Amino acid sequence: MRGNFDALADIIDRHYCFFADKNIDWAEITSQYRSQITEETTIFDLFFLCSQMLDELKDGHVNLSSKFSVSYYRNWWSDYPQDFDLRTLEEYYLDFNWMSASGIIYKQLPGEIAYIYYPSFATIISETTLDYILALMANSRGLIIDIRDNGGGALTNINTLVGRFIEKKTTGAYLMHKTGPGHDDFSEPYPIEYEPSYGHIGWRGDIVVLTNRSCFSAANTFVAVMKDLPNVKIVGAKTGGGGGMPFTSELPIGWGIRFSACPILDSGKNNIEYGIDPSPGCEVHSPAEELAEGKDAILDFAIDLLKDNPLPFPPADPDTNPDDGNPEAGQGNPPFVIID
User: Fold this and answer.
1) I need a labelling partner for 296 at 20 to 30 A (CA). Which of 25, 44, 116, 242 fits?
2) Which residues pair with 64 in a beta bridge?
């Protein structure tokens, strides 16, 4: 039993990436839990003892996997308000009538507000689907991207989305990796760059990203990238974090161990493991009792931010003629462009 415990403790000691950031004394923690192993300790006892020890890392990316259970630290979200209810969204805001493709729910809300709900970065986004979505909602005052309750997934889907909102190659984040067994042995930050989605439709209008505590991992990184774009506001609650790239290993007993090994930093090289704050003046919460009554304060706040924007295609003034060189004549500037 102690051999497997020691193997787990050593793997985490050598490869986990947030000891210094979280001020964790791993030697003290492992000594405390190892002392609880006795000759009577069963495999099940060992699993749950190791799971409790891993919970000391307070990291949703840490899992111990056996044939009978998988450990998971839930307090990163369970200790906070949910600030979201899918049924409220579907019934009171989407009227049980929306379009859906590539895991994205979308609709133009009353007041000409484009709305996208993307519940998981684990679902691959089709570039063609994004072209259709942006084109179908082109005549909108602004775009809401709702990622509340998005627990993460593939980082490549961040590239797909962000590429529609930037005009040039952009350093949106940084990645570091371990260079040795010491808790402070890391490489220099390596830039994560995002490129425009050339040949596809891009959005240049105002964007509001909706967040809650259950935005984690890739969703957390997406918010870190989007918050620096000049036409974007982050509205809602602080995200749940998850700023470490996961790595997996195996114990002699056959159990798998997954943990954060490579820290991701934002564009200012700040750690994002603890989550991303909303934009100034944009922290909003949706109390459960209001959600039950059909009111989503976070979504309402976002709609209010965008509702007074001019429409991109205002009706042409019949008293003006574009051919006369009048810049006020004809149509306005669209919020989308073909990226070239």
Assistant:
1) 242
2) 257
